[in-house]
TrEMBL record:
It comes from Streptomyces lateritius. Belongs to the glycosyltransferase 87 family. Residues 1-46 are annotated as: Disordered. It comes from the Bacteria. Keywords: Cell membrane, Membrane, Transferase, Transmembrane, Transmembrane helix. The keyword Repeat does not apply. This is Glycosyltransferase 87 family protein.
Length: 461
């Protein structure tokens, strides 16, 4: 039997005035004090393992306290100015982080201006909705393309921050803080990729799905569909919607929105689905889990492959690469099967389940992918932040693992990217630890999602 928990727990009985410096009221009888003690919930145990969900309370991170929005806005401004300065200089490590915007994105923008998606371009591997993001700087004609793109990225970032802050109504869940403080761990990379915009659509979709209204569910479905047409993975925001009317409203809205947008793009642009031809040819990117395995084997002298720039990324070429690619594809299929089984067997939903399921799903599909670009961490940080806006989430320890993984991702690119390409000890070490953290986060997320929504339901039955 499927159970739907009320996301707002009933208030505890008023225990009356607690003891002050001078003790409790002298007139209170002993039995009243005992009754109050029985009704008062026990404080969380902060001495246990940091990976126990109930140990993550307001004492775990910086206390929000009074004036949270002002503090949050101040940190956002300071960190984003720092990111912007790094981007304007763009000499950290290998440098050239912004080149993708003012060379590649702007090149595609000119093609869209002629009414066509990129044709026979191996670097164009994105769904047609991505074209809307690439074209969006045109709404700011008084700026250069690069300036307009960065400005719109910062606007999307601010929208995510504001939405998370509003959802953080308890002021002890810290979802907005994870986003504001976690994104700068990737240095200036988020400002030079369109993944912030895709993440914004997924974040807003998950927050809309928490609404008790049909309109909110439909809005969540529409936003998830828009995100999926920008970068596919936001469709996973819908995998954890509770069965029944919520799922029906959200999924129907998503299907209608996707069909309408696809039809519109096909009407006004040619070759809108040309990206499908490029995906199948991808190899093993050096930053993927399979790439790390090959780099370690190469360092041990048991694999003679090399690194080549192919399909817009550095990939490994040599024996067993195709085998590892097929294995990665098989693992992706198995991850999808597991998610389907979870969906069918889940019995216990809370307000946090959709976000928890989305984070677990994206993590599983990320670690089994042939490609793990550093900007993928933007997705994971955004989803983790949504999870942490609810006190019912089970993903707090997963979010804790993602923060050092994000820092190591920026250390790998752009800071030590030459070492990663050359397979030196620092490069190997950074990639091995980063990918180990991602794998641990994926397995932990899957386990906690299962035990919180399947095992709990089975025990209740």
């Amino acid at each position: 039997m499927t159970t739907h928990r009320d996301p707002t727990p009933p208030p505890s009985p008023d225990p009356g005035p607690g003891p002050g410096p001078g003790g409790g009221p002298p007139s209170a009888p002993p039995e009243a004090g005992a009754a109050r003690a029985a009704c008062t919930p026990a404080p969380p145990d902060l001495t246990g393992s940091p990976f126990a969900s109930d140990t993550f309370t307001s004492a775990t991170f910086v206390s929000v306290g009074n004036g949270p929005l002002l503090s949050l806005a101040g940190v956002w401004v300071v960190t984003r100015v720092g990111m912007l300065l790094l981007l304007l200089r763009d000499t950290l490590g290998v440098g050239g982080v912004g080149r993708e915007v003012y060379v590649l994105y702007q090149y595609w923008y000119r093609q869209f201006a002629h009414g066509t998606f990129p044709v026979n371009d191996v670097t164009w591997q994105y769904p047609p909705g991505a074209g809307l993001v690439i074209m969006s700087p045109g709404v700011l004609p008084w700026l250069t393309y690069f300036q307009a793109f960065v400005a719109l990225t910062l606007l999307a970032d601010a929208a995510v921050t504001l939405a998370l802050a509003r959802a953080d109504s308890d002021r002890v869940t810290h979802g907005a803080w994870v986003w504001v403080c976690g994104l700068p761990l990737l240095l200036h990379l988020p400002l030079a990729r369109y993944d912030v915009q895709a993440t914004a659509l997924a974040v807003l979709a998950l927050l809309a799905l928490r609404s008790r209204s049909t309109a909110g569910h439909r809005l969540g479905g529409a936003l998830a569909a828009l995100g999926a047409l920008v970068k596919v993975w936001p469709v996973l925001a819908l995998i954890g919607t509770p069965r029944g009317r919520t799922t029906r409203d959200a999924w129907v809205s998503a299907a209608v929105t996707a069909a309408a947008l696809l039809a519109t793009l096909a009407l006004f642009f040619s070759h809108s689905l040309g990206f499908l031809r490029q995906q199948g040819s991808r190899g093993i990117q050096i930053e993927s889990l399979g790439g790390t395995a090959l780099s370690l084997a190469g360092a041990a002298g048991v694999w003679p492959g090399t690194v080549q720039y192919r399909y817009g990324a550095f990939e490994y070429v040599g024996p067993y690469v195709s085998t590892i690619g097929r294995l990665a594809l098989l693992l992706t299929v198995l991850a999808c099967v597991w998610l389907l089984i979870w969906r069918l067997r889940a019995r216990d939903w809370t307000e946090a389940t959709p976000a928890d399921a989305a984070l677990a799903a994206v993590l599983l599909l990320t670690v089994t992918s042939r490609v793990i670009s550093p900007q993928y961490m933007i997705w994971l940080l955004g989803l983790a932040a949504v999870c942490l806006t609810s006190r019912r989430t089970v993903m707090r320890p997963v979010a804790l693992l993602l923060l050092p993984a994000a820092a190591l991702s920026s250390l790998a690119y752009p800071v030590l990217y030459d070492d990663v390409l050359a397979g030196t000890l620092p490069g190997l070490g950074v990639m091995a630890v980063r990918n180990a953290l991602l794998l641990a986060a994926a397995l932990l997320a899957a386990r906690r999602l299962w035990t919180s929504s399947v095992a709990v339901g089975e025990r209740a039955e």
